[in-house]
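chain below, 464 aa
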Amino acid sequence: MAAAFIPVFSEYLKKQAHQDAKDLANVAFTTLLLLLSVVSILGVLGAPIIVSVLAMGFADDPEKQALTIQLTRMMFPYLIFIGLSALAMGILNSVRSFAAPAFAPVMFNLTIIACAFLIAPRLSNPIYGIAIGVVLGGCAQFLIQLPHLRRANFSLSLRWDLYHPGVKRIGVLIVPTIFGLGITQANLLLNTILASFLAAGSVTFLFYGMRLIHFPLGLVGIALATAILPSLSALTADGAHDELNKRIEFGLRHVFFLMIPATVGLIMLRTPLIHLFFEHGEFTAEATRGTAIAVAFYAIGLWAFGAIRIVVSAFYAMKDTRTPVRVAMLALLCNIVLSLSLMGPLQHGGLALATSIATMLNVSILLVFLVKKIGHLNWPAIAHSLLRTAGASLVVVVICRWVAIHDVWIQNGLWSTKALLLGTGILFSIAGYLGIHMLIRSPELAAMRHAFAQKVIERTNHGP
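prediction:
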């Protein structure tokens, strides 16, 4: 939604009056609310069909299939909130307001965690508490952005105009955008279908594994890509190709700057993280081991999950929707072949690894086409950035390894000790990583500090 909306909305902000941009936002909000409501109603009614297609392996277990249908029905309204949240995120990033959109995914995760502790234990089947958390989390993710929309003079209201020219342009863009940016979701969907034929718990291992991957991806990767898209669209509209190239390079360098240490940390701390947050009740030590395998193989492709957003956004800013779709279809075919080949020897780990490899292939091919389209990228600068990031990440390896080898992770209880150990390790890893970048005067860190300082000055001048 955001990738289709932002280029059109950015152009309205640049070339039309503020009221015209506001009208487009309201018409898009009304249209999206209606469409997602219809889809959610159809999803609730058609849940048995959806589950029979997406989890074919559950057909032999009527109880598991019935539970999955019920959970699907409970969580489908989440689609409405996450769609509206994407629209709000697109508006705020287009007017250079980044804090609320960046924090919104965190609210989603925090709400799920809160429901897991406060609601789930009070229900006859605790899993329903998590389903409630998904819907409430989506709602919180949208609502937290509304005050910031009002400050930007973009309070959303109902305005129906099916023939609005801006909405028509968004509609033309959104279908190929779904295929281009939705390839990761398509790969995860394939994982769910194939995992339903594997050993019991495989679907759960992949789900919880991707939840941990989505935390840094949602907080950093998707937020960075969504934030950079308005500027790419504006530069394309102005014909500033050299500056466009620099902005794409900037986005890639910062994805690597943030995602590579996150990858290292997730791989090294996967067992402590899963043990502390999930290993309670029926989530056993065996489930922790299974989820840890999924996290390790998903984390290999974390940089690609983040970079694909930047690269595809560049194509959409240039109004090229065909290339990402074609490459995405090739990557999906690759994922199918790899999944079928690896699920035998590696079980659910093979499915996670196939998704990572397919995403890395996807972003690599897109980069080749992007260079042909824009002329060049400053590869030496990107390579030097990678070397700096890899070197600084060594401190993350050392500290996280020290945390992971403690015997406390195989002992029962001691939750306060475990939380303190894990939290301390994460904080020292971040401090050490950023400290090394300060010592070597990393331009990526300098750019982030400058952006933060500018935001503070802006807040000081204009108030909260």
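The chain has 20 helices and no strands. The mean pLDDT is 86.
thats it, cya
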